[in-house]
Design goal:
The chain is an alpha/beta fold and about 425 residues long. About 45% of the residues lie in helices and about 10% in strands. It has 14 helices and 12 strands. The strands form 4 sheets. The chain has a 6-stranded parallel beta sheet, sandwiched between helices. A two-stranded antiparallel ribbon has the order 1-2. The chain has a two-stranded antiparallel sheet with strand order 8-9. Helix 10 (about 300-310) packs across helix 11 (about 315-330). The protein starts with a helix and ends in a 7-residue tail after the last helix. About 40% of the residues are buried.
Length: about 425
């Protein structure tokens, strides 16, 4: 008999201790120390895997991306689909025709989605309709088709329904393709604060179909370009160069590749933006590290955006934030005068605001920074650009420095042509 087994043959108390020790050793991450247990420490890990897939022409009948996973043997495929009301007007007929063609039993829940209705009440309404339809929790993922706001809402509902129901994202805006559609965050606005309620719950699959962008208005293309510019400024100088050269063409062609140069630029810009975003998210998906370069442009913008509603879109508020922090970086000699001017010029070329009159309210910016400090565990962790394509983090921005940065930006913002408060 081996030594390990013989240890279990002693007196009752010894056997109990040996049994507990053996159980602790066999349950990796669970630690208990005696037969008189009054405390446990549990350590476990949940593997996370999700896919972001290019799927142009997603609703062509020959594509089957949305039919994954298959139905149980002998059962009909079923899907609960949440559809943005604007997308429904433009694409609803072909979306319904796709599911009819593939004999999918489906319900389409049409939801008007913008920041003003990004609320728990909207999420609850979706859950009510989902509960009435009923889904197999593992085999029948929810499908959300719309912009970043709707994907955030449905992601939250999916994370809560039966403590986690898989979902598939189909972003229909540029900001959804390159930002909201590729990460793990869900959320709704609450008590006047942006995304104050939320979870980390990535979609199992995100399907990227650039053809949806053809029906966006020009302003919403610019809205997405702001988040692409963010990645360029803090980690990808090549991406900035492409935006500097081809940004107006991408705006004109809406990423549809109507010219050879436009197609090449559209493919490179989308792929570099997504690759850059995922490089930052993958090792830090749950934000255990709070110095995140993708937080660039997201220190002051949540407060500015919520105060300006509905005048500023999300990307526009982010751009105002990036313009201000570019001014702060220039004052610290982190970025040269020439490069700062290049940044402002590209913002203008992308038809994005470099100034908003809300910046003239110092108490608003101070409150925004204080709220960010709470969010980032007691420190500013404020990302500032280093040249074009790199970033550093600072924790010592003062109220006077903010006032000086605003004064500098006020001059820069009003010296250039382009939108001020869109």
């Amino acid at each position: 008999m081996s030594g390990n087994n013989s240890a279990l043959l002693g007196r009752p108390s010894e056997r109990a201790q040996a049994t507990a020790a053996a159980a602790a050793q066999s349950s990796a991450g669970l630690y208990a120390y005696s037969e008189r247990i009054d405390a446990w420490v549990v350590r476990t890990a949940k593997p996370v895997s999700y896919e972001v897939r290019v799927a142009d022409g997603l609703f062509d009948f020959e594509r089957t991306d949305l039919l994954e996973p298959a139905a149980a043997p002998g059962k009909r495929l079923r899907r609960f689909v949440v559809l943005d009301s604007d997308v429904d007007l433009l694409h609803g007929n072909r979306i319904r025709a796709y599911f009819d063609y593939h004999d999918v039993e489906h319900v389409i829940c049409v939801v008007p989605a913008d920041e003003t209705v990004k609320s728990f009440e909207t999420a609850a309404r979706i859950v009510e309709e989902l509960d009435a339809f009923g889904v197999d929790r593992r085999r029948e993922p929810l499908i959300v088709i719309g912009g970043g706001v709707l994907m955030d809402i449905v992601g939250l509902a999916s994370s809560l329904y039966r403590r986690g129901t898989p979902f598939i994202r189909v972003p229909t805006t540029l900001i959804g393709l390159v930002d909201a559609g590729v990460g793990a965050k869900t959320g709704v606005n609450f008590n006047g604060h942006k995304n104050r309620l939320g979870t980390y719950f990535p979609a199992d699959l995100t399907l990227l179909d650039r053809t949806f962008l053809a029906t966006l208005d020009r302003r919403h293309i610019g809205n997405g370009l702001a988040e692409i510019l963010k990645i360029a400024l803090i980690k990808d100088a090549r991406l900035f160069d492409v935006l500097e050269r081809y940004g107006p063409l991408l705006l004109n062609e809406k990423f549809q590749g109507e010219s050879e140069a436009g197609e090449d630029a559209a493919r490179e810009v989308v792929r570099r933006a997504i690759q850059g975003m995922l490089e930052e998210l993958q090792p830090n998906l749950w934000e255990t590290k709070l110095e995140r370069c993708v937080d660039y442009g997201h220190t002051f913008s949540p407060t500015v955006e919520m105060r300006a509603l509905p005048a500023l879109l999300h990307g526009e508020a982010v751009c105002v934030d990036m313009a201000l922090t570019t001014a702060l970086a220039r004052r610290r000699a982190l970025i040269s005068d020439a490069d700062a001017q290049r940044v402002y010029d590209v913002m203008r070329a992308l038809e994005l605001p470099v100034w908003d009159d809300l910046l003239d309210q110092p108490e608003l910016l101070t409150a925004a920074l204080l709220d960010t400090v709470r969010h980032r565990n007691g420190r500013q962790r404020l990302p500032l650009p280093v040249g074009i394509g790199d970033v550093t983090f600072v924790n010592d921005v003062t109220e006077q420095e903010l006032l000086d940065g605003v004064a500098e930006l006020r001059g820069a913002g009003r010296r250039v042509e382009g939108p001020q408060h869109v």
